[in-house]
Amino acid sequence: MEQAGDFVDESETLSAVLEELDAGHWDRATKFKQWTINDIIVHLHFWNRAADLSLSDPDRFAEKLEQIPEIGVDSGLRAYENADIRERGPDLLAAWRALYRDMGRRWALLDPKTRVKWAGPDMSVRTSMTARQMETWAHGQAIFDLLGTQRVEHDRIRNIVVLGVNAFGWSFKVHGRDVPDTMPFVSLTAPSGALWTYGEADQDNRISGSAVEFAQVVTQTRNIADTALEVHGPVATLWMAEAQCFAGPPETPPAPGTRVSA
Length: 262
Known about the structure:
By secondary structure, this protein is an alpha+beta fold. It has 2 domains: 2-152, Up-down Bundle (Four Helix Bundle (Hemerythrin (Met), subunit A)); 157-242, SCP2 sterol-binding domain (Nonspecific Lipid-transfer Protein, Chain A, 2-Layer Sandwich), CATH 3.30.1050.10. It has 10 helices and 6 strands, in the order H-H-H-H-H-E-E-H-H-H-E-E-E-H-E-H. Strand 3 (185-189) and strand 4 form a beta hairpin.
C-alpha cells in the first residue's frame, strides 16, 4: 500500500528538523492555537496509536474512543492527549518515530480496502494512512513555520490534495450549508511540475495554482488570501474560504497573515 510509505516519508521529513532541536525549543508555542512542538508531536503520536489500535484491536479502540473528550482543537482533547502520553522532547521524538516506522512496515502489507473503525464512519486502511499523512503534514507546517524552515515538498502531497477534493461536500455540510450540485474545476501544479486536474473543465467555478497551496488551504494551515491560488466563481470562493478536509466540528481557517511562514 503506497500510502503507508508516503505516511512514513512525511513523518521522516518532520522528524529530521526535530532531531537538532535544543530541549528548550520543544515548549515554544507555534502559530497553531499556541500549541507547542511537544503538543503537536503528542497529538500525532496519540492518533497514530489510535489508528494502529483500530486495526489490531477494534473493540479496545471503541472503548478508548468513548473515553476521549469531544474532538476539537479547543476542547479538552489536548489535555487528555498530554496526560495519556508522558514522553517529551527527544524521548517523545523517539517514541513517535519508532511507532510510525513500525506502522509503515506493517500497514504496507495490508489490502488497501480493509475496513477499520474510526471516530466517524468506518474507513479503508488506505484512507486511514492518508489521514495520518495529512495530519503529519498539516501539523508539521506549524513547526516548519516556527523554525523558519522551508519544507521540501514531494508529489506524495497528491494524497492530501485528493483528500481535499473528496471533502468538497463535507466542507459545506460541516458548516450547515447545502452542498452545491457541481464541484469547481481544480487544476493544480505538483511539486514535480506535473499538472493534476479534478472535475469538469467547462464551467465558471474553478481553482488553479500550486498543489501545495491548495493542500494548505484545505488543511487550514493558510488562509486563501495568503496564497497565489486563482479562484473564480461563487462556489469556488466559498469553498476555499471554509474548506476543511479533516473530521470533527467546523473549524475556522486562520485569519489572513496569521499563519504566514516566518
